């Protein structure tokens, strides 16, 4: 930027450095004390960034001083700088929301084009610029209904929440894809949240890899179209488990359905795990067995690796469905520790947890088994196995097996099983 001198940069640096240095120090102190709770380096990094974003946001006094300094630079350089908002926001999504206009609202709103455009602008300001949360219990629904409820049919809160959650997630993912295109990133990964609210359809998409250019073609078609009905063809709603090659699936990026919380992430082609799809000796030739093999053979090696690594985020205490599910998960963990802690060599519950995370992180072998409609990943290291529920990313058990092939592979009843690593 022409017109900016070293003294200008030094002036800004002196204003904000003491504040930022203190907050960064506080953030890292907080994270380091809790570092031993994290099963993977990636999860630790994500937590560090969250803490930095939370602690390093500038307060109003610093913002005012910084804005004043930037205004002086602006006057000198004649380059437009917007310093009114110095918070961490998804500006890519805001920009794309402006381009998208009222397309997505055409499916939900009864109002005319101008009303839909106003609603989209309100949503961009409230959720994307101001960073207010979406999801159940959000405060924005009341404000949204007060402003636009007359144009929603029927006039009920869940419909408003469906419009908000689905539209905001669509805009954010579309914006990320546009940013990847600009950065010349070639592939992206579908990332499901992986908690008890994640549906089977979204779970079946987790870890799949797609080409950015294919998604951009769909975005361009949506953006250029004046017919909202075409959305059903370009981005059909999917509520069933998705099978087959990723390149043949009808929906290439989130949301997959109303209330979908999935997101896209940049993906590299580097493969660190050499996956396979093998039927272990003794496995029965059942319909479930063939479907299991077919599903994972349709995935690329990178997609299979992504699904294995997703279990690095699995947790003993992650609740399944139901009011008392967290309590049940906690009681289950205590039972497993009491029964198997001594044989594993764990002297405490925390050590028992750490052992399980270490097995998942660095397994010798990985199997996938299906029992009564549920899918489990089985991580084996030496003579210890950890069983993780793939539907909820919840660790169910860990124990020692002395004769793995005879006692576990052949001795347990199941509907299907494959070796994947």
Give the biggest sheet: 5 strands, antiparallel
**Largest sheet: spatial strand order:** 7-6-5-4-8
Q: What is the end-to-end distance?
A: 52 Å
Radius of gyration: 25 Å
Number of domains: 3
Structural class, from secondary structure content?
Answer: alpha+beta
The secondary-structure element order is: HHHHHHHEHEHHEHHHHEEEEHE
Strand content: 5-15%
Give me the count of strands. Answer: 8
- The average pLDDT score comes to 78
Helix fraction? 40-55%
* Low-pLDDT segments, ≥5 res: 77-89, 98-103
Written account of the structure:
This protein has 421 residues and is of the alpha+beta class. The protein is 49% helix and 11% strand. The strands form two sheets. It has a five-stranded antiparallel sheet. It has a three-stranded antiparallel sheet with strand order 2-1-3. A hairpin with a 2-residue loop joins strand 5 and strand 6. The relative contact order is 0.08.
Element layout with pairings:
Elements: H1 6-33, H2 41-56, H3 60-77, H4 91-100, H5 113-129, H6 140-148, H7 157-182, E1 187-191, H8 200-205, E2 209-211, H9 212-224, H10 231-234, E3 263-267, H11 287-297, H12 301-309, H13 325-344, H14 349-361, E4 365-371, E5 374-381, E6 384-389, E7 394-400, H15 404-409, E8 416-419
Antiparallel strand pairs: 1-2, 1-3, 4-5, 4-8, 5-6, 6-7
Short description:
With 421 residues, this protein is of the alpha+beta class. The chain has helices at residues 6-33, 41-56, 60-77, 91-100, 113-129, 140-148, 157-182, 200-205, 212-224, 231-234, 287-297, 301-309, 325-344, 349-361, 404-409, and strands at 187-191, 209-211, 263-267, 365-371, 374-381, 384-389, 394-400, 416-419. It has a five-stranded antiparallel β-sheet.
């Amino acid at each position: 930027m022409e017109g900016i001198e070293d003294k200008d940069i030094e002036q800004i640096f002196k204003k904000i450095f003491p504040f930022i240095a203190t907050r960064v120090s506080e953030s890292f102190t907080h994270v380091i004390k809790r570092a031993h709770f994290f099963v993977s380096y990636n999860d630790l990094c994500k937590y560090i960034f969250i803490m930095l974003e939370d602690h390093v946001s500038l307060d109003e006094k610093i913002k005012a001083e910084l804005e004043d300094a930037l205004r002086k630079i602006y006057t000198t350089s004649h380059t437009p700088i917007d310093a009114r908002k110095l918070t961490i926001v998804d500006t890519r999504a805001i920009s794309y929301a402006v381009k998208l206009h009222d397309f997505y609202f055409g499916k939900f709103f009864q109002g005319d084009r101008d009303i839909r455009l106003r609603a989209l602008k309100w949503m961009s300001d409230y959720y994307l610029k101001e960073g207010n949360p979406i999801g159940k219990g959000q405060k924005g629904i009341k404000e949204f209904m007060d402003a636009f409820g007359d144009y929603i049919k029927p006039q009920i809160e869940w419909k408003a929440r469906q419009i908000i959650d689905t539209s905001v997630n669509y805009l954010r993912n579309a914006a990320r894809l546009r940013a990847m295109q600009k950065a010349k990133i070639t592939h992206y990964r579908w990332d499901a949240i992986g908690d008890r609210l994640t549906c089977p359809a979204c779970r079946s998409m987790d870890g799949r890899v797609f080409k950015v250019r294919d998604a951009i073609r769909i975005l361009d078609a949506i953006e250029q179209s004046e017919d909202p009905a075409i959305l059903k063809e370009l981005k059909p709603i999917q509520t069933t488990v998705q099978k087959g090659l990723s390149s043949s699936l009808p929906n290439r990026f989130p949301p997959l359905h109303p209330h979908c919380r999935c997101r896209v992430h940049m993906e590299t082609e580097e493969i660190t795990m050499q996956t396979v799809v093998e039927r272990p000796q003794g496995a029965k030739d059942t319909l479930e067995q063939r479907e299991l093999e077919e599903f994972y053979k349709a995935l690329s090696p990178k997609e299979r690796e992504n699904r294995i690594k997703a279990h690095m985020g699995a947790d003993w205490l992650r609740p399944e469905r139901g009011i008392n599910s967290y309590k049940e998960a906690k009681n289950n963990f205590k039972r497993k520790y009491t029964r198997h802690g001594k044989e594993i060599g764990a002297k405490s519950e925390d050590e028992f947890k750490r052992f399980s995370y270490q097995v998942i992180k660095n397994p010798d072998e990985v199997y996938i088994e299906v029992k009564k409609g549920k899918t489990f990943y089985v991580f084996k290291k030496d003579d210890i196995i950890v069983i993780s529920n793939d539907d909820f990313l919840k660790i169910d058990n860990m124990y020692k097996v002395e004769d793995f092939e005879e006692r576990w592979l052949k001795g347990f009843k199941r509907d299907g099983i494959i070796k994947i690593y």
